[in-house]
Description:
Largest sheet: 6 strands, mixed
Helix content: 40-55%
CATH class of the largest domain: Mainly Alpha
Mean pLDDT: 95
CATH topology of the largest domain: Serine Threonine Protein Phosphatase 5, Tetratricopeptide repeat
Radius of gyration: 23 Å
Number of helices: 21
Strand content: 5-15%
Low-confidence stretches: 508-512
Structural class: alpha/beta
Order of helices and strands: HHEEHEHEHEHEHHHHHHHHHHHHHHH
Number of strands: 6
Strand order of the largest sheet: 1-6-5-2-3-4
Amino acid sequence: MPKFGFTPYRDLVRGGAPTEDDSSAAARVRTLRGGSPNPRGSYVLYWMQMFLRGAENAALDEAVRRANELGLPLVVYQGLNPNYPEANDRTHTFILECARDVSRDLAARGITYRFHLRRSRSESAQSIVSELARAAASVVVDDFPAFILPRMTQSLVRRTEESGVPIHAVDANGLVPLADIPDRQYAAYTIRPRLHARIPEYLLPLPSPEPANRTPAVLPIPENRFENLVAREDSDLATLVAECDIDHSVLPSLLCQGGRREGRTRLESFIDASLPAYAKYGNDPGRAVTSGLSAYLHFGCLSTGEIVRDVLRSSADDEASDAFLEQVVIRRELAFNFCRYTPVSRHANLEALPDWARKTLSEHASDERSPRYSLEQLEAARTHDEIWNAAQRELVATGTFHGYLRMLWGKNVIRWTETYEEAQSFMVRMHHRYALDGRSPNTYASILWCFGLHDRAFREMPVLGKLRPLNSSSTRRKFNLDPYFRRVAAAAGARNMPVLAAENLPGNRRAT
């Protein structure tokens, strides 16, 4: 059994008694503006941004508790704008599918939910959430440490300054609150013991409170500004997406449908069918035993806690359970720790790398790259490397990556582009544009891992310097990739996207 394995927690989880208490729940709350509740407020507002679930949601639970303490109804608000980086049909569709599930789950709990879809970039930018917040007694927001969310949250604080309404951010990102590890960690081996020291306290949360006041709240926004998603079919959501001023060339994923229901189905299927083989075959693209849960974790359809509990309640052996939960908890929370304690402006550039990595990149910046491909060739998967092309086409066609190949993909982008900065920028853009988990701390940390973040120095070589080497030839020797190639070919053939056109396949490729 590993020194810091998860399976010793099985009995605790199977016992079923809450291990969380009021102080544990309070550890997730960060006060952005304190003070007494707004005496003019007629409801408590929860601005749902990233934790898109109506259950297993610590932020929602905190909002319900605050509403009950004040004897007020709760209003949950979610909005979707067309002006986030690389806004497109794929991401919009997934978010709307998530929102539909949220609307149904909250309706069943008697909680008021309102969703606003801003269709045009030219539409008035007046903030609906700010208007709702000014009329609230208290506000709860999601405490997500990456992408545009910190800036949006700070904007809400500034816009509502005159109202004085208290605003509290709640961390429902992972199993252990980010505040419990109060400084930046630089490797899995440093954060692992710290997390395991706190995990038992958060394994089983307190029961979710139910709203005491279900009176419909009177809102300062006309009801015709909101979309009722409860009864919307897939075709209705597609119509809404088509009305938005976004990139319509990136089509929705046929592999991943958004929402908590689909996330739960995938989790249960993974535990039953694939988890037992995860320790042995999780890195093998040909075996397809990964969970497929990254998008559902990123958009908050599932909580880390429920995944951990379901795995520990399963019959999977210790080795498989520990291998999977190492990724879900330790590696994922290391990435969130990086984003919490690193300025947002440095999540998507090379300034956050450790000293040894920046030094080796500086020493090898002028190394000759051969072959070298243009960014257009890379995006269209027109390289000499069949494995790399398949990984790129999987990303473009499905919005997902096989985890092992994501790392190989990144190492080769470094080898084939003119500068390290160009390589890193391309990786970020491909994730923002195509990946359904592309705006998460996991993505930013994984990209920077290719450049040495959370890693160590290796034997020096051209271009990569002392970065960890991964290459396609060893990958082909290690795995039977034919099943993977067939899956990618089928997925790419099912999507009518110009970047996936057959003429882009090797045969028409040219390196520079």
